[in-house]
Amino acid sequence: MDFMTLAKNRFSVRNYEEKQIEKEKMDKILKAAHIAPTAKNWQSARIYVVQSEAGISKLRSLTGCAYNAPTVMLIGYEESEQYFNEMEEGISSGQQDASIVATHMMLEAADLGIGSVWVDVFPNTKTAQAFNLPESVKLVCLMPMGYAAEGTKPAPMHETYRPMDEMIKMM
Fold it and tell me: Which domain of life is it from (predicted)?
């Protein structure tokens, strides 16, 4: 499958089978994260793979958006390892680095037949504390992941796009 087909066909999955992702496939998803580009290649992103019953239960107590996924990734960045723009104060790469890594994981998962959803609806700091993450690690998103339950379909707005000329401006 070519990239455009993969990107267009991938959709947010919010209902999963109980089946866990096989180690070989998980290794590929994590390798996609590992090779993702980051600012100055400083690799500030951090990924925490939650698969234990206790960990999944803890996540479900923090947010309704962990769904029934057998795996949930906590994706963030290490503050001290992000790039700081020398040309403008307050501009740094941590969120971007974590987002690029998350996107690589999401697309590799889709290529392997594994569904996922990017989740912003969770208490970032409380979640980090619940999992005893270092204070210097800032979570950006959760990514529930697994095999889509039978009958799972894209949300109705999945193929609704803003006109390209509203999004893209040639200068």
Answer: Bacteria
